[in-house]
């Protein structure tokens, strides 16, 4: 017999998975622990499989529980989106489109492209948030976000993607650096100097480490910072080379004693895409945004 899952039970199950304890989940959800225990037991009886197990670190999902949690997040995200969309439409709007984007995209043309889109479609409502490529793809697949603007090397399996704008990785050096008068430089040559890392653990850094390994070298940043502006200031102090997209460096090129040297490597041109789930998951408002961003990139490339 088919079981209909109610949203309260799904939220309680996710709370237990995330808190690692029925007591903590009950406190978070403002409900007594015994009620949570009964709900979890009834849920496992309904699905016919163990979803939660106790371990040294507390309570956590089994393999089946992990699969159930992923589906539960998608169902709840869909319900939240449905309520938000109906509320917006009831008040004359067209629903809120949730967009995730990388810091590089947000620091380049994405805000301007969105502004132009909103002038054309003033009824649209958008939620725009920064996230890593891995997090963006996960949230789109689970239905927690409608669109993501990410690098095309991300794992987009199961998603549709349309082309967006490119950017171009460059070597950022101080004006006193030995490479400062070069018109271009291969990435491998920069590895002979100290490096400054932006956003350690990012997909960009992972790619740089991979290309360094291909060149038979190791990328060992001398300094790690968490922002593009931070890299620009550290480089200006002649503490190392930064590898960043040319497009995000414009605010600091004239203000600081730095130079931007294009990388001569073919992979230095990075291509971004707008990715999303296919119908019937994509709302009409999200379709308008995805198509608008694609069109803006197409016009810019002509």
Task: Summarize this structure briefly.
It is built from twelve helices and eleven strands.
Topology summary:
Blueprint (H helix, E strand, L loop, with lengths): L6 H13 L2 H8 L3 H15 L4 E4 L2 E4 L1 H28 L5 E6 L1 H4 L3 H11 L4 E6 L2 H10 L4 E5 L8 E15 L12 H4 L4 E4 L4 H12 L8 E3 L2 H9 L4 E5 L4 H4 L4 E5 L6 E8 L7 H18 L1
Parallel strand pairs: 3-4, 3-5, 7-8, 7-9
Antiparallel strand pairs: 1-2, 5-11, 6-9, 6-10, 6-11
Helix pairs in contact: 1-2, 1-4, 2-3, 6-12
Secondary-structure-based class equals alpha/beta
- The best one-word shape is globular
Portion of residues in beta strands equals 15-25%
Order of helices and strands: HHHEEHEHHEHEEHEHEHEHEEH
Low-confidence parts lasting 5 or more residues at pLDDT below 50?
none
Extended strand count: 11
CATH topology of the domain at 184-264: D-Maltodextrin-Binding Protein, domain 2
Average per-residue pLDDT, rounded, comes to 89
The CATH architecture term of the domain at 184-264 is 3-Layer(aba) Sandwich
CATH class of the domain at 184-264: Alpha Beta
Instruction: State the separation between the terminal residues, measured CA to CA.
Output: 58 Å
Over the alpha carbons, how many angstroms does the gyration radius reach?
24 Å
Largest sheet: 9 strands, mixed
Question: Share of helix among residues?
Answer: 40-55%
Number of helical elements: 12
Describe what you observe in this structure.
The protein has helices at residues 7-19, 22-29, 33-47, 63-90, 103-106, 110-120, 133-142, 187-190, 203-214, 228-236, 250-253, 284-301; strands spanning 52-55, 58-61, 96-101, 125-130, 147-151, 160-174, 195-198, 223-225, 241-245, 258-262, 269-276. With 302 residues, it is of the alpha/beta class. Among the domains are: 7-73, Arc Repressor Mutant, subunit A (Orthogonal Bundle), CATH 1.10.10.10; 184-264, 3-Layer(aba) Sandwich (D-Maltodextrin-Binding Protein, domain 2). The strands form two sheets. Strands 3, 4, 5, 6, 7, 8, 9, 10 and 11 form a nine-stranded mixed beta sheet that branches. It has a two-stranded antiparallel ribbon with strand order 1-2. The chain is globular and about 70 Å long. The mean pLDDT is 89.
